[in-house]
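Human: We require from you a standard protein entry with sequence in single-letter code and fold as C-alpha cells, and nothing else.

Assistant:
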Amino acid sequence: MEQVVIIVVIGLISLVNWAMKRSAEIREERKRERERLGIPEGDPYHSAPHQEETPAPQPRASGGSSPEMRRLMEALGLPPDEEAPPVARKASAPAPLPPLPAYRPPAARKPRAEIPGSRAVPPAAVAPVSPLAAALRSHEGIRQAIVLREILGPPKALAL
C-alpha cells in the first residue's frame, strides 16, 4: 500500500512539473510572437495576439447598390434607385428664455406674543414640594432610596 502512495505522489509531482514546463513554453511562444509583431511587453490592447484584426467596414460610395440597402429602401417604401433624402438640420439659435420675475423678499414675521416657558409663574401658584421629592433632590436622599428599595423590594433571586 505504501508503494502505491509513493507512486501516486511521484506521478502528481511529474504532472505538475510537466504543466509548469508547458506553460513556460507557451509564454515563450507568446513573447516571440509579440516581438515579431512589434508589440511592447505588457500592452493591454494586444493581449491576444492570435486574434486576427478585422478591417473596419468601408462606407460605400453608392447608396442603393448593396442588397441590404435595397431591402431597407423597399421596407421604408422608397424606390430602390432613389437616394435617401438629406437630413434637415436646424441652424437657428434657440428661442430666448422669458425674463425672471423681480425678487421680492418675504414679508417680515412678527414675533409671537407668548413664547412657551417665558411666562413668569407667581410664587403663590407653585405647589408645595413633597418631602419625598425634596429628599430625592440630594445625593444623600438618592442613596437612602436605593438602600430602602434593596431592603423592602423583592429578593434578587426572584427578580426577573
